[in-house]
């Protein structure tokens, strides 16, 4: 589930909340839900989210039916180490529709001919021997700003607590400027002892696992 598209769809349905002043707070809370690092935290956080906004019946009915009861695979911890959006894939899809099939519905035999043409064109465009070839990046480009932020973060010299389980190792550290994390804080995070949605926000934004 693409987080970007999920977010856009939710924004389109915020009209179900009559008080426009609440729209920003609701979206901020949904962005917090998206940060859930596993299914257990996501389930607890969503229950507290629904409790917090229980007076917004129309919106919660839409949100529950559309994004909790069925398409609920939009939180970060569902699939780690993979992108949470598919924007790059969507761009490629649009290019194929606009430039190659001209948004026509093709029969399989006709699409096969077009497919061979697309592969041939893309192969030539990315031929490294050509002067104007499209460069295929083998590594992500890291900006100077990102390097600077990373360097400053490393200088904080944060404590990292590693806990090994049967097949995985979890690494815990505090976000922000804090450098030390206690066993009590780790246990509170692991046990998901959240008293309110506000507590969920503090934990998800403060602790990283």
Automatic annotation (TrEMBL):
It comes from the Eukaryota. This is MULE transposase domain-containing protein. The lineage of its organism: Eukaryota, Metazoa, Spiralia, Gnathifera, Rotifera.
């Amino acid at each position: 589930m693409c987080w970007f598209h999920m977010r856009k769809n939710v924004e389109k349905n915020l009209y179900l909340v009559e008080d426009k002043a609440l729209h920003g707070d609701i979206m901020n809370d949904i962005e917090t839900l998206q940060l859930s690092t596993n299914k257990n935290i996501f389930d607890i956080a969503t229950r507290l989210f629904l409790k917090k906004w229980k007076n917004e019946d129309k919106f919660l009915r839409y949100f529950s039916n559309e994004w909790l009861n069925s398409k609920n695979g939009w939180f970060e911890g569902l699939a780690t180490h993979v992108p949470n959006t598919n924007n790059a894939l969507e761009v490629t899809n649009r290019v194929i529709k606009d430039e190659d099939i001209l948004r026509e519905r093709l029969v399989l035999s006709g699409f096969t001919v077009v497919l061979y043409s697309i592969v041939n064109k893309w192969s030539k465009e990315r031929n490294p021997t050509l002067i104007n070839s499209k460069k295929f990046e083998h590594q992500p480009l890291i900006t100077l700003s990102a390097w600077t932020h990373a360097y400053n973060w490393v200088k904080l010299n944060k404590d990292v607590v590693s806990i090994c389980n049967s097949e995985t190792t979890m690494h815990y550290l505090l976000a922000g400027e804090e450098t030390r994390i206690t066993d009590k804080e780790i246990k509170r995070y692991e046990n998901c002892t959240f008293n309110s949605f506000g507590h969920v926000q503090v934990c998800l934004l403060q602790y990283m696992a």
